[in-house]
Structure formats: C-alpha cells, structure tokens
Amino acid sequence: MNPVAVKAGPGKVAGSSAPESHGSVRPLAAEDLGQVAALFLTKFRRRRLRDHAVAQTADYMRKLYLDGGENKALVQINPQGGLGGFMGVLKARYELNGTALNAAIIGPFMTDSSTDHGWAGPQLLRTLHQGEFDLYLTDSANRTSLAFARPMKYQLLPVHCLEWTCVFQPGAMAAALLQRKWPGLARLALGPCARAFDALAGRRLEPPVQPSSSRRIHHERIDAAQFAERLPALMADYALRPSWKDGELPRLLALAAEKQADGPLHFGGTYDEAGKMVGCHAFYGQAGGIANLLQIQAPGPHWGATLDGLIAAAREMGCVGITGQTQGRFLPHLFGYNRLFFRYAGGTMVRSSIAEVAEAVRAGDIFIGGLMGDRWTRLSSDDFDRA
User: Fold this and answer.
1) What segment(s) does the record annotate as region Disordered (predicted)?
2) Interacting residues of 52 by C-beta distance below 8 A, sequence separation 6+
3) Given this model, what pLDDT does residue 144 score?
4) Is 218 helix (H, G, I), strand (E, B) or coil?
5) CB-CB contact of 263 with 294 (8 Å)
6) What 3-state DSSP class applies to 69?
7) Mean pLDDT score of the chain, rounded to an integer?
8) Do the beta carbons of residue 314 and residue 165 sit within 8 Å?
9) Which of 79, 170, 311, 355 has the highest Cβ tally under 10 A?
10) How far is residue 356's CA from residue 212's CA, in Å, rounded to a whole number?
11) Which residues contact 261 (CB under 8 A, 6 or more apart)?
C-alpha cells in the first residue's frame, strides 16, 4: 500500500465515467493497463520507460487483477477524464472462529502528480471502504502510507513491519547486495574479494546457525502440493486466518512461483519422529544469492525446529544469507541465531469495523503476511525492463 505522487504519460483513460468536481472512481479495466503500468514503473522502478517494460508490466497486472474473475482493483479518473490514481486490490477470504469474512489485500497505491490535486488517494480509499469487505489489510505500506492510513483507523502490527536477515557469508552477501543495487557491477570484480573475506572471517566467526532441534525431528524437501495440503492445518491455532477454497491455495502458490528476483521457489517440511509434518516453509533462493522467505508456519512447540530447517535448507543451497518478514510467534526463536539483523521493510496494517476482528488483530491472533499480503507478487521486486 503505497500512496505516492508521480507523473505518468499523457492521454485519456478509456471507459471512464462522467467526471465529478474532483473526479470519480471505478474498477480497473483492461484499457487502463498501459497507463497504470507506466505510472507504476515511473514510481517503483524509477527508470526511463521502455515499451517492452510497460507491456510486460501491463500483462502481469492483467493476470493478477483481471484474469482471476473477481476484479477489485480501482482507478481514479480526474475531471479531465485522465488517470488520476490506482489502487491494486486482491480479494481474499478469512474466517474468525468459523465466521466467513471478505478481505481486501491492498497492494500498489499511487497517484499522478501531474493531474492529481490531493483528491485521488482519499477517493480511492473511501470507495474501497464503502465496498463489500469486512477487513482491509496491507503488508507493504511505506511511511507515507502509515501517516495516510492510520487516521482512518488502520491498526499497525509493529512486529510484522520488520524484516529479519541472517548472514551466512558476510563478504558474499555484501557483494550480492551491491549487485542488486547496481546490476551492471561486474560479479567477477566482487567475487574474489568476497571469497577472500569470507575465508578469513570463517576462521574467526562462529557459525550463524545454532540448531535447537531435537534429533527426533528431521527436515525434508516437499513440493507445492504437499505445502498447500498441510499449511491450513498448521495455521489452525489463529482465531483470524485465511479460508482458502478448493484450488485457491495451489493457484496462489503457482502465481507466487512466477516471481523471479530471488530465484526459484522451494518448499520444505519439518517432521516429528512419527513422520507427521509439524512445520513447513517456502522460500525463494539460488546459490550465491540472498534467500527470501515467503512463508513459514508451525504450531508453538515446533517453531524453533522449523526455523532451523528453513535456515539449513538455504545454507545447503549455497545462499549467502536469508531474509524474511518477522512474525510475533517466531520472533523469540530468531534470537537464537547470531549474525542476525532487523530493519523496517514495510508497514503491516489492518482495518475492520467488526469489534471481534479488531480485538483479534490487537491480540496478534491473525495470520497475515506472506501469502496473505502482496510481497509475493512480481510487482514487489521484479525487473520488468528485461527484453
């Protein structure tokens, strides 16, 4: 959720309704995608717009927002009939102690400074709040969004706003971060220095992982189908949790697997001595890169072992470190690792007028982030400017 002021290209948005004094809001249409994609790239990729980048971004937005059958994304049309702003919205289903709830997951939220005079953002949010949803959530709000949304009674989840990073190879991780920031930086120039530093550091520093798992616990690689089958049962101890219908979770995982920035998507399970899966994880990773956690879940007694399995899997793959969104339920177990750091990565907020939902959020009794957010989409990180 990122309300911003940026400039997009000229032109009209096809199919806009008759403009009101400050513009109007309507659902996203296929004819809007080119300008919405250009607006997105201008702000979030900050590069000169290329036709193929706009086309690729528009195609992905079509798949994400229009092809699923339940389009909830919104555009604001200014009084001149042009694009004033956009809000990416994905519909999800939650349940609270057995009661079904409709949820809106808010993603990119942006306005065009060349046409907007401060009305587009409030109009988009007001329209969204007047809709069919019982709760609204985001896990990617920037600091502008925090100031913008909290007066509208969004509850902030501070722990979920943090990102944790565990460093395996300090030199190689620094090189990977530099390459991520400046892709043109030659890997050959950084690699030898990073390897020399890590060889020296390896003799002086303790291993970053301090396993706490019992020998009766073991870890195995699993596939997306096994992950999808087991995850709902592992999150059953949350009062406020997703309610995926048949086929929804596998489809969501298939979309998440399209993300490219951090490598392929991998799945793992943690098993007890009886062979029962007591925890699972999913992360993006590849040798020489920084692994990125998508989802991890376990009941209380098995969080530590499941984290051990996640970090061990990333190290064995050859990743130089791992990063992921923090959750209240496994935060204490993270303190068992050294070379671990925290930083603010994006605000996680929830809004609901239902008292029981608001109370569950205050108590931290909500499954949120990962698949119930928008960081899994390609819009969160991928470079659409590749030919």
Assistant:
1) 1-24
2) 385, 387
3) 75
4) strand
5) no
6) coil
7) 86
8) no
9) 311
10) 36
11) 284, 292, 381, 382, 383
**Position with higher pLDDT, 19 vs 287:** 287
Q: Which of 159, 172, 139 is closest to 339 using CA atoms?
A: 172
Q: How far apart are CA 110 and CA 265, in angstroms?
A: 29
Share of the chain above pLDDT 90, in %: 65
State the pLDDT at residue 112.
86
Domains of the chain: 5-133 (3.40.630.30), 162-168+208-363 (3.40.630.30)
Stretch 20-40: mean pLDDT: 91
CB-based contacts of 186: which residues, under 8 Å, 6+ apart?
A: none
Say how many CA atoms lie within 13 Å of 235 toward its Cβ: 28
pLDDT at 17: 42
Task: Report the alpha-carbon distance of residue 387 to residue 156 in Å, rounded.
Answer: 39
Tokens of 289: 């890169």
Distance of alpha carbon 182 from alpha carbon 29, whole angstroms: 35
Predicted TM-score (pTM) of the model is 0.87
Which DSSP helix (H) or strand (E) runs through 160?
Answer: none
For 230-256, what is each residue's pLDDT tens digit? 999 999 999 999 999 989 999 999 999
For residue 354, what are the CA distances in angstroms to 135, 152, 156?
Answer: 8, 14, 16
